[in-house]
Write a structure and sequence with these properties.
Elements lengths: L7 E7 L7 H11 L4 E7 L5 H10 L4 E4 L13 E2 L1 H6 L4 E5 L2 E5 L2 H11 L8 E5 L3 H10 L5 E5 L3 H12 L5 E3 L11 E4 L23 E4 L6 H8 L3 E3 L2 H16 L5 H12 L1
Helix pairs in contact: 1-8, 1-9, 4-5, 4-8, 8-9
The structure holds 2'-monophosphoadenosine-5'-diphosphate.
Length: 274
C-alpha cells in the first residue's frame, strides 16, 4: 500500500482501539479493489468525540467507523443520520460527502446478512435476544420486522422492558421474558451480552435447556465457551465474526460506492482471528 497526497483516509474512532480487527479487512479490501484508500484507527477519548468528528471535515477523511463508547454519543454532532441510525439511536459509520457528515448504522443489517449467508431464514422464526444494550437494539430493530416473534431477556429487567417497548412500535411481535426457562421454544437464540468476552465468564444461559437443531448466536468474534458447549448439544452456532465482516462490508460500500470484496475481507479477518 502506497500512501500519497491523493490517498483517501477512512478511520475508526473508539476508546480503546488497540484490539480492533477492522483495519485488516478494510485495508485488504482497498488493496484488492485497487483503491487509493487507507483505514486508520484513532484512539478518541470520550471527551474529545465532538472535536474528532469535526476533524473528519478538517482533515477531509472520507468517513469513519465508530465503536465503543461513541456509537450513541456521536448523533448530536452529525449533520444528518439515515433512518436506521435515527431509529436505533446509534451510529457505527459516518460518511463525509462534500463536508456533510451523515450517520449510518450497519450493525443490524450486518447481523442479518451473517445469518442469511449461513442459510438461516429469520422469517417465521421465534427469536430470543439475551441482552438489552446497543448491540441488542441494532439487531432487534432488524429482526423484529422479519421474525415471527421476538423476545428480549436482560439481567436488568427495566432495560429489557424499554427495548421491547421500542421494538414493539416497529412490529407488534416483540415482548419480554422474565427468565430463561423456556429456551427450547426458540428457533434462534442470540447472546448479545458481554458474557463470554472472558474465558471464565459464566454462561449466559443453561445449555441443558436447549434441544438439538436450535441456532445459537454469539456476537463475540471468537468461538466462546457458550458456542463450544451448545455445539456439543447438536445446536447450530454462529459467532460474531460474520456480523463484524458484513457491517464492515456495508461501511466499505458507503465510503467507496463499490461492491465489497466479501471473501477478501473474510480471509483477512480469519487470518488474524484463527
Ligand atoms: P453493547 O453495545 O455491546 O450491547 P452494552 O450496551 O454495554 O454493550 O450492553 C451490554 C449488555 O450485556 C447489557 O444487556 C448488560 O446487561 P445489563 O443491562 O443488566 O447491564 C449485559 N451484561 C453485561 N454483563 C453482564 C453479566 N455479568 N450478566 C448478564 N448480563 C450482562
Amino acid at each position: 500500500m502506497q500512501i500519497t497526497g491523493k490517498t483517501k483516509i477512512a478511520g475508526l474512532f473508539g476508546w480503546p482501539v488497540e484490539h480492533t480487527l477492522s483495519p485488516y479487512m478494510q485495508n485488504a479490501a482497498f488493496l484488492h479493489c485497487d483503491l487509493d484508500y487507507c483505514y486508520v484507527p484513532f484512539p478518541v477519548s470520550p471527551g474529545r468525540l465532538e472535536n474528532a468528528i469535526e476533524a473528519i471535515r478538517s482533515l477531509n477523511l472520507c468517513g469513519v467507523n465508530l465503536t465503543i463508547p461513541h456509537k450513541e454519543a456521536s448523533l448530536p454532532f452529525l449533520d444528518v443520520a439515515d433512518e436506521e441510525a435515527l431509529a436505533i439511536g446509534a451510529v457505527n459509520t459516518i460518511t463525509n460527502t462534500d463536508d456533510i457528515l451523515t450517520g449510518h448504522n450497519t450493525d443490524g443489517r450486518g447481523f442479518a446478512a451473517a445469518l442469511q449467508e449461513q442459510g438461516i431464514i429469520v422469517e417465521g422464526c421465534r427469536v430470543l435476544i439475551i441482552g438489552a444494550g446497543g448491540a441488542s437494539r441494532a439487531i432487534g430493530y432488524y429482526l423484529s420486522r422479519t421474525a415471527k416473534s421476538l423476545h428480549i431477556y436482560n439481567r436488568t429487567h427495566e432495560k429489557a422492558v424499554a427495548l421491547a417497548s421500542f421494538l414493539s412500535r416497529i412490529s407488534g411481535n416483540t415482548d419480554i421474558v422474565q427468565d430463561l426457562s423456556s429456551l427450547s421454544e426458540y428457533d434462534i437464540i442470540i447472546n448479545a451480552t458481554s458474557l463470554g468476552m472472558k474465558e471464565d465468564d459464566p454462561l449466559p444461559l443453561d445449555v441443558n435447556l436447549l434441544r438439538p437443531f436450535q441456532t445459537v448466536c454469539d456476537l463475540i468474534y471468537r468461538k466462546t465457551p457458550l458456542l463450544r458447549k451448545v455445539e456439543q448439544k447438536g445446536c447450530r452456532t454462529i459467532d460474531g465474526l460474520g456480523m463484524l465482516l458484513w457491517q464492515g462490508a456495508y461501511a466499505f460500500e458507503l465510503w467507496t460506492g463499490m461492491h465489497p470484496p466479501i471473501e477478501v475481507m473474510r480471509t483477512a479477518l480469519l487470518s488474524i482471528v484463527k
